[in-house]
Amino acid sequence: MATDTSTHGVPGTATSIQESTKTPLPGPKHPLDPLTPDEIVAVSFSVRNYTAAYTEIKAIRFITTYLLPPPKKDVLAYLRIPLSTGAEPGPVPTIVRKAEADFIDVVTGDSYNTILALEDGVWKVEAVDKLPDGVQAQISVEELLMCEEIIRHDERVIKLAKDVGVESHQLFADGWAVGYDDRFPKKNRIQQAIIFARYSEHDNLYAHPLDFVPVVDSVAKKVIHIDWPPQFTKKSSESTLNFASAGKDTSLNTATTAPPTLGSSAQELQRERIPPPKEPQNFLPDLIQETQPNFKIRDDIKPLHVVQPEGVSFKMNGHELEWQKWKMHIAFHHREGVVLSTVTYNDDGVIRPLFYRLSLAEMLVPYGAPEHPHPRKHAFDAGEYGMGTMANELALGCDCLGQIHYLPGAFVKHDGSAFVIKNVICIHEEDHGLLWKHTDYRVGGRSHAVRSRRLVVSMICTLANYEYIWNYYFYQDGSAELEIRLSGILQVYVNSKDEPNPFGSTVAPGINAQYHQHLFSVRLDSMIDGLNNTVVETDVLPLDAPTGSIHNFAGNGFFTRETPITKAKDGAREYSVQTDRRWIITNPEHQHPASKKNVGYAIGMKGGVCKMMAKEDSWVVKRAGFTQKDLWVVKDVEGPKGSRMWPSGKYVPGTRGEHQDEFITSWVRGEDNLVGEDLLVYLTVGTTHIPRPEDWPVMPVEMLRVSFKPFHFFTANPSLDLPGANDTHSGPAFPNGEAAACCSNSN
Predict the structure, then answer these.
(1) What integer pLDDT is reported at residue 650 of this predicted model?
(2) Which fold has domain 320-711?
(3) How much is the pTM?
């Protein structure tokens, strides 16, 4: 195990590298445990041996290696989870551990997918399939780092940077998938390099954007083209494009927002150079003090400690967690980040299945500037890069507070060894205020209060400039929540002096933070009291009868209308503010004893609904059809490589709208039944970001949430058995303060 990250090229998010393996490999504790570093190395060894012996492939670059999950019903039977609450679990099956790997032939540039099975402690290759021409596997961390090295050594880039006062050693680049660009063959594995200058070791490089965009071939390891974004101007002429008819009184110094031909040059475009802003815009305190002598860290914040003198209330068995009445499996995934599986709730001794799998399936960040090459900036941060591969090593007392348990993560390196992130998933408990309280206001009445404790499962990912914090919360009333926090640094471009900025905000002199959106596809594989579920759409409607009528004399009546989603063709749904629409995942085989309604869990996404701003036939929507609807209900279809998973397809980099049969939009066609079936629910949530100077140079968190609440699921409030609030360590804030004992009249 190597730990010197500088000599081995380990990115700042990883801890170390696993280079050797044990033989034979021990079996996992749980069928959904992620591949260990040893297993990743062993898989690489088997793939190399197989390709050397049975193929013409001469050199391999590994891109991804991960667990291929066993069939759903086999996992449930193995874990003794019933297919329907109250039924007997199925017979315990024999589960074969399998792995899937993607790699590139670095000689031809072809991509391959491999399936392996673990037999007697040794990984054996079952299949090696060449992917169709133009289909590209995820962009690796090493390729992103490679992009920066390539532009630093390209003579054209060096000269162009020097022309605006930037030396080659000051050049830095964020590699982005090229998105959509018909000028380049799909077979090429290319990135666009968003480049910046850094004038000192830890200087905020995003404060110094450059005015051109190199395009890099990751296999050939060279710059193949340079793009020049045009400039906006207040003047208009025959050679400029005026935006007055589009609602903006400004002009572009080119006649179109379309891409120029590959032979065009800056001179042909009459493109003036824009030197990068040189003023430091730092967020590290010591660097701020260098340029702002009066800057000081606040000294009026007293310590606030999270203390659990008797330890935590949860138990861990490998990747399996038990807390209060919850039980679940927690795993690292190179693409989705945190994956929660086989989530159940112990309801007075009855194990009730809730979610088979919960994760982030895709994420898109489309930018709103129409002039080329900015429309290429629509990053699929999960499908193109991977949330797990970009995850942070978490620090105790910084990223998570209190008594913390960490889980590790690992993903494959180009050479087949394993990157290891030692503390990638954080698990802890938090106080969450009052869970419930009531006071009888009458004389002599009693009151009772119960505080809320929640379990937190979290991960932080750095996608170049942006940070994403994923918090999965579980509560003592049987509800759950996914909270997404956005932070980090705005993605910016350079503006010349007095240049209009119609599609962004000027957050500092010369710094253009373009308008953009963050859109997330949350995948929920439900098993509410079993696998046979139905999604019901509920609208809240005012009574049609007019005020003064015999049916609605006071005019205040309203009711709910429930509509089951019955056919595949009806599976794409939109949120309605007017009807306060919500969706409930129900089980028609189980009813509440009092209400007689089917048991269910309600999805709360009111604050997270976000309309996609791009046109329906735009480049980005051709690749991201999932953004067109707020909720998708589809029937799960398990094949040799698992369930339906990826709303924009399994292989995302470089796609231009082809392979639509692999997209979620093709799963909502036809007459297939959706009532009482094994269902998947995809939620599209997000936020539209109109940047402000207060977001610069680093952004305070912005939050959005999705909730899952029991709905006619429990007989009554499931948190009635919680002890009353009584924290003896709480006290008055000041010496002369007075405070009554907690709920002193509750007994």
Answers:
(1) 96
(2) Beta-galactosidase; Chain A, domain 5 (2.70.98)
(3) 0.95
